[in-house]
Structure formats: structure tokens, C-alpha cells
Q: What sequence folds into this?
């Protein structure tokens, strides 16, 4: 009896030990895999933590606000004399200098429309646009063995010089062209359009014939006006899609407003404009704002001739934004997050921020 009991006890103990061993092993296995996952998690947590810590430290200092407004600058000619639609090379250089000093950094119109903003933290994005494809926007002064000399007084010359001197001022600008010879020199057209795209700048649509949409009553002519420019550019810069448009005269169909949809997208022809800009008078909404309309982007006149700008020119708005008359967009430096002070949270459209993460913070009163 006693022996049997001992045996029984032993076997019970053995079984228990065996169970413990097995579970122990599997626990060990789990622990190992846990640890492996754990390391990744920890690394990720640490990265996130570091990001959050960085923003935590800087938030009160840099005060990011990605619900704020952005200036889309409207230029036309770069010419000898300052006029309603002409800026001198000196003035244009001065504009870039002032933008740079005031903490503006260019982004492309496409990136603005799509909310892809990688402007460094504490800086404000600005969009630079040119209408009409004038020769003085992109002029070639000589060519030798396929080496082209760009007129340093033309817009492209000034922009590239400025970017070379200030590499942290990205070379971003959109040139809206028609179906004439954009930038005037037929023999250099291929070179010019390809150069712009290679340098990371954009070509936009200004309609084939500088078309006034106001009295338009049929969709066919709208589609023709838009598709022609898209096709032309595509035939010269293979694979480049013209998908931004500047309304000539800022005109929209007035007799039949429903025709506006054809300016956005073609039905017979294959095109879709992700950004449509108007003729300007003020900065426009954050791309994450509830009311941001990519088909109705306002612009600011890049001029300081008060008889034309009447307090709404580039310098007026730089000033007004600085004074807080409108909220200025200030980047958090992270394209994956959209950072806004708590009070601006309700203005943000979660659908528009898409995959990005919304970060809010309480702005402490510094005064
Ligand atoms: Zn125009």
C-alpha cells in the first residue's frame, strides 16, 4: 500500500512536473516571441516617444498650427517696369528675400492641394505661381553645344539663383501656360518644359486660348481648352501630367454654373485638375480645413502697387499674417502629423487629413 501510494505520489509529482515543464517551455517560447515583438515595440515606442518629446518641448516655442492659412502668390510678367501685371527682377528678388527672412518656404501647388506638407517645423509654406507663360518668365539668352544660358533676369533665372544661394528655400513654382509657344522661344520650348519638370517645378494649365469661361454655355469648348494644353505638355514632357489650372481672368461659367464641373474633370476627354486657382486677393485655407476647396484656391497678388493691390498685396498680407489678422499656417515639421492648438481642432476635416495623425496641444498663454 505504502509503496503504491509513493508510486502514485511520484507519478502525480512527475505529471505535475511534466506539465510545468511543457507549459514552462511554451511560456518560454511565448516570452521569446514576446521579447522579439517587444523590442520592435520598444524601438517604435521610443521613436514615437522621441517625436512626441521633441514636439512637446517645441510646441510652446514654435507654436505649430496646421489649420492656418497659406499664401499662394500670383505673378505674371517679370519686366522692366513695375505694372499691374509686371514685377521687376529686383522686386521679385526682394520678394524672395523677404519671404525667406520671414520664415516662408515654397511648396508645390500640388502638394498644397493634397496636404503633403514637409516644410520644416516653425516655418510656413508658400506657393509661387506664374500665369501666361511670358518669355520674361523663362528666357534663354544663348545656346552653345546644347548648353543653355538662362537669363538671370527672368523668373526661372532668379528662382534658381536664389535656391542655389539658399538651398533650404526649395525650388518650387508653378507656371500656367497656354497653347501658344509658352515662354516665347519656339526653338527652346522642349528644353524649357523639360527643364522645369526636371528641376522639380510644375507646369499648369491656363487654357489653350486664355479662354474666358464667363459666358460659356457648352462643355465641349471647356474640355477642348483644357485637354489641348494637357496633351501638348504630355507630348513634350513624356509622362508629366498637367493637373493644376489657373482660371484666365479668374473667370467661371456664369450663364450655366453647372459647367464648372468640366473645368475640374473632363467627361469626353481624360483630365482631372486637383487644384484650380483664382485671381487673388487673400491667403487661402489650410488643406485640412473643413471648408478647403481645391477647386477654388485664392491667391495673393505678388505686387506692392497699392493702386492695384489695395492692401491685399504680398507685403500687406505678410504683415497682416504676422499681426494675426488671419491665422498663419505654421508647420510642425512632420508630414505624417497634422498639429493644431486645441482650439482649432474642430476646423480640421479628418477625411482631408487621411492617413496623417492629428496632434492637438494646449497653447499656453505666453503673455
Ligand atoms: Zn492669364
A:
Amino acid at each position: 500500500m505504502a509503496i503504491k501510494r509513493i508510486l502514485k505520489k511520484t507519478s502525480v509529482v512527475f505529471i505535475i512536473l511534466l506539465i510545468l515543464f511543457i507549459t514552462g517551455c511554451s511560456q518560454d517560447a511565448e516570452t521569446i516571441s514576446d521579447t522579439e515583438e517587444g523590442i520592435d515595440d520598444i524601438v517604435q515606442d521610443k521613436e514615437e516617444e522621441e517625436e512626441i518629446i521633441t514636439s512637446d518641448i517645441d510646441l510652446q516655442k514654435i507654436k505649430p498650427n496646421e489649420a492656418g492659412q497659406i499664401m499662394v502668390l500670383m505673378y505674371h510678367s517679370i519686366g522692366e517696369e513695375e505694372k499691374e501685371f509686371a514685377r521687376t527682377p529686383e522686386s521679385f528678388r526682394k520678394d524672395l528675400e523677404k519671404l525667406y527672412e520671414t520664415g516662408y518656404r515654397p511648396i508645390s501647388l500640388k502638394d498644397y492641394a493634397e496636404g503633403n506638407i514637409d516644410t520644416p517645423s516653425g516655418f510656413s509654406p508658400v506657393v509661387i505661381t506664374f500665369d501666361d507663360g511670358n518669355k520674361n518668365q523663362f528666357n534663354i539668352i544663348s545656346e552653345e553645344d546644347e548648353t543653355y544660358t538662362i537669363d538671370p533676369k527672368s523668373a526661372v533665372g532668379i528662382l534658381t539663383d536664389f535656391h542655389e544661394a539658399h538651398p533650404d528655400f526649395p525650388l518650387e513654382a508653378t507656371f500656367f501656360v497656354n497653347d501658344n509657344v509658352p515662354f516665347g522661344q519656339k526653338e527652346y520650348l522642349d528644353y524649357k518644359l523639360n527643364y522645369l519638370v526636371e528641376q522639380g517645378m510644375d507646369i499648369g494649365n491656363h487654357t489653350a486660348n486664355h479662354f474666358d469661361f464667363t459666358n460659356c454655355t457648352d462643355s465641349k469648348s471647356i474640355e477642348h481648352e483644357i485637354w489641348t494644353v494637357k496633351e501638348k505638355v504630355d507630348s513634350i514632357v513624356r509622362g508629366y501630367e498637367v493637373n493644376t489650372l489657373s482660371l484666365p481672368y479668374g473667370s467661371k461659367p456664369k450663364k450655366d454654373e453647372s459647367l464648372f464641373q468640366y473645368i475640374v474633370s473632363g467627361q469626353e476627354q481624360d483630365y482631372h485638375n486637383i487644384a484650380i486657382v483664382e485671381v487673388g486677393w487673400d491667403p487661402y485655407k489650410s488643406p485640412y480645413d473643413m471648408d478647403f476647396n481645391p477647386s477654388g484656391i485664392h491667391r495673393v497678388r505678388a505686387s506692392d502697387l497699392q493702386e492695384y493691390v489695395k492692401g491685399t498685396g504680398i507685403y500687406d498680407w505678410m504683415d497682416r499674417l504676422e499681426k494675426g489678422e488671419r491665422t498663419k499656417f505654421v508647420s510642425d515639421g512632420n508630414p505624417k502629423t497634422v498639429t493644431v492648438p486645441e482650439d482649432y481642432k474642430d476646423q480640421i476635416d479628418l477625411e482631408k487629413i487621411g492617413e496623417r495623425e492629428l496632434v492637438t496641444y494646449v497653447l499656453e498663454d505666453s503673455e
Residues 1-10, 16-39, 49-54 have pLDDT under 50 and may be disordered.
